[in-house]
Write a structure and sequence with these properties.
Elements lengths: L4 E11 L4 E11 L4 H11 L8 H4 L5 E6 L16 H4 L16 E6 L1 H9 L6
Parallel strand pairs: 1-4
Antiparallel strand pairs: 1-2, 3-4
């Protein structure tokens, strides 16, 4: 059986406080690869994206979290939902399929340290 390939939208979050993020769409992503392999792929691909400003290309992203799945409800949080980390944060040992990723899933890619700080004090600068 051939591996299922899906389209995934990645929300690259540079700053939670300033609501600074950009979107990238990836087609043909295999759900059988591990989350860790997908993070390595993103870390290699993002610096090569000339359409992104340098602050986005040269940042220390290290964590993925599901934002939204197709045909399901969306959160009202403008940057990233701060709840349900145990269910929505992707574990590196799982495959994308095991992590709950499906076609047209939107995933946030961010620095975990920044996320933890923002979660303690979720105040926006504007």
């Amino acid at each position: 059986m051939a591996a299922e390939e899906v389209t995934i939208t990645i929300r690259i979050i540079r700053s939670f406080e300033h609501r600074n993020f950009k979107f990238l769409v990836y087609h043909g992503i295999s759900l059988d690869q591990t989350v860790k392999d997908f993070i390595v792929f993103l870390k290699q691909d993002i610096p090569l994206r000339t359409s992104l400003p340098p602050p986005f290309r040269n940042y220390k992203y290290d964590k993925l979290k599901i934002i939204h799945q197709a045909h399901k409800s969306k959160t009202n949080e403008l940057v990233l939902n701060l709840e349900d980390d145990d269910r929505l944060l992707l574990r590196e040992g799982n495959t994308l399929r095991e992590a709950g990723i499906a076609n047209e899933t939107e995933i946030a890619f961010f620095c975990e340290e920044d996320y933890r700080k923002y979660k303690v004090n979720p105040i926006s600068s504007w």
